[in-house]
Amino acid sequence: MSGEEPLTQQQEPEQVKKPDEPPPVAAPAPAEAKPESGSSRPAAAEEEKTISYRALVLTGYGGYEKIKLQVKSMNKSQLKAGEVLVRVKACGLNFAELLGKQGLYELLPSPPITLGMEGSGVIEAVGEDVTNRKVGDRIIAMNRHGMWQELAVVPANRTFPIPEAMSFEEAAALPVNYMTAYMMLFEMANLRPGKSVLIHMAAGGVGIAATQLCQTVQDVTIFGTASASKHETISQGGVTHPIDYRTKDYVTEIHKISPKGVDIVLDPLGGSDSQKGFSLLKPLGMLIVFGAANCVTGQKKNLLAMAKTWYNQLTLNTLKLMQTNKAISGFHLGYIHDEELFKMTLIKLLELYQQGKIKPRIDSCYHFEEVAEAMKRMHDRQNIGKIILLPEPKKSEEKPKSNAEAAENAEKNEAAVSEKKEEPAEEVETEKD
Amino acid sequence: MSGEEPLTQQQEPEQVKKPDEPPPVAAPAPAEAKPESGSSRPAAAEEEKTISYRALVLTGYGGYEKIKLQVKSMNKSQLKAGEVLVRVKACGLNFAELLGKQGLYELLPSPPITLGMEGSGVIEAVGEDVTNRKVGDRIIAMNRHGMWQELAVVPANRTFPIPEAMSFEEAAALPVNYMTAYMMLFEMANLRPGKSVLIHMAAGGVGIAATQLCQTVQDVTIFGTASASKHETISQGGVTHPIDYRTKDYVTEIHKISPKGVDIVLDPLGGSDSQKGFSLLKPLGMLIVFGAANCVTGQKKNLLAMAKTWYNQLTLNTLKLMQTNKAISGFHLGYIHDEELFKMTLIKLLELYQQGKIKPRIDSCYHFEEVAEAMKRMHDRQNIGKIILLPEPKKSEEKPKSNAEAAENAEKNEAAVSEKKEEPAEEVETEKD
Q1: Chain mean position to CA B241
Q2: Searching chain B, which residue's CA lies closest to the CA of residue A186?
Q3: Superfamily of domain B31-174+361-431 in the CATH hierarchy
Q4: What is the rounded distance in angstroms from the CA atom of residue A378 to the CA atom of residue A371?
Q5: What ipTM is given for this predicted complex?
Q6: Cα dihedral sign for A389, A392, A393, A396?
Q7: How many whole angstroms from its chain centre is CA A71?
Q8: CB-based contact (8 Å) between A323 and chain B?
Q9: Where is this region: Disordered (chains A, B) (predicted)?
């Protein structure tokens, strides 16, 4: 399932960080070079030649310096049946990569490994037996890892066409956060009109996705924790009761507003927060634990934080559950292997996007060279919405796109898309048919 | 909430078991004795007199002999505001009473206590402030206990008018079993088209209710455990795959048919069966434990069975839940205190009944004198459907209604209702307006 396994991997000893240089990427094959637009095989011999591309590789566990920007090379003809080659335009940063960097994400193979679970881009080549994707298609791609690179090989069934109006940044922000929120709210829990939901880290990627999805159901009350500076934004986004978890006890605050508690708790924190979440549930309510963010304190693995989170982990027997009429569940997208479920969920999300009911909020965009800054921003909980990584090399004069600027871009997709068409790295888009 | 607390209780030293005698119950006040049909107060002084009635009282923990048929007396004028007096026509037997008899049902006050959580009958008097019920209404009544008596005092908001076509036996069979099944399937779990459900004890009261409710949703696959002799009946009732748990390992059998397992497990057994149920769940599936039937082996409290059930009780931490994407929950109707939820659920169930989508299956009807036989039948898992207790004294020539006869009655409600009208104890029905 790895996008890089079939490829020749040339790891450079030193981190590549040359933002001023042109991208070391071969020009895409022009569309007219293909004899048949529907053909799935490289037609001309010159296409067989090796192409190089940049990738963000985790080289060991530890601090940000363990993630290195490296140049790799591959041969398009190595594409296997059922695979597609994607020129990646934008990638999503997830909490899983913060955990992975510290060696705490058990689904990530040992380093060296290219990170990244989601991205968007344009299909540059298709392997045998791929009939539903063609060169030039704008797509969302998901993979177990390996999306943080300019060129990624992914199974065709893990790619999904994106609507015209959706920017690459939005597309890269959608899969992990929105699928997680959707499956939790509508597959595991049973969100219906009139219910109440506690969303921790309500300004984070899953938090904002969950807030938007809650609003697709009538009369849902949303309690959202976030630091005070983010309250205005999350209120505008739909959080009914923002709570500053840094200065107030959220259990007390929620009980003041709703003495009986809440119906659903989405808990990415783990440890003692799971216990508090359980105590907050109304009868017939459900706590969904989907992370252990409390484990991540500093930059490196913190054994004390881990032990504390583990020790305080909610452990319940069925008698206690019966006496309280409550449900607990765990959710981890990485352990879902049902391709049909992935597909149906993403199709549903793209429909909701087109109906204007959901819209990924982009917090900021960082070039690959700035990955440490991007991760630090998430680690320090500074983001409101999704942090995006851009494979395109940073231009020397360019300021990092973040905050207000990125938010503005997210609100003006079409403008953003047309703007990008002027940039050289976006030439591949002209291949679209 | 007890129906008997406000009443004078005259406990007889010996068990009353005189089926040949006429019922020691005062004749109901004729409707025309009331000056205003809407009046909620006893109008005439003669109504104030003490009336006596029969009740099934748990006198201590142990075998069937601990439940005694006693004659009590009360004064109608003792009715408090918000209460109604119900002449009970039929009562439901639940597993909770088997547990209660052994001292294993923690919600039941200490003996002596009148048993019974559900019943049906006719309203004989209404207390102050009761505006939505009137004398003569045919109703379902629920209470924490105290329904196994000829006259029961219950809060008016725990009574629900029953449809014309519904017999008293059906009405008494509905509340506990169908509310339990409904809340589990539609409030806790999220039963939707195409899902699969494992129903243990599929021929029991909750089992049959759950089977019928599953069929209100399209394409639900039902696995049901029951002994082989019941398979034909439960198949006809809608169980897709009946499994004989006595001769086969149900985990193996289910995996043969559905290698990925099931979406929902309804588990009234507890102990090691909860562990098996959890192992059978598909990702995003839910195990609902709603009993510990495995505790009940013999007639009396069995410490070994309890210890074994307790020891094998499913205990999970959130990490395990995350890694498997599963949910566990507990359900216990006795711990639900949300009156609005009760009301809405029962109204929904009565709608489904009137639409012909659900219909309680009566296994057998026993008179109060035969309560030991009734409980033994449930304890030995001989029933298919609900066991009903009738306050009406047994006539000497009458055979116990059971099995085929009772099933026939259940299919011919109207016949059953009209038949009962000929019996003297049913005269109260003529009060209906």
Answers
A1: 26
A2: B190
A3: Medium-chain alcohol dehydrogenases, catalytic domain (3.90.180.10)
A4: 11
A5: 0.78
A6: negative
A7: 23
A8: yes
A9: 1-46, 389-433
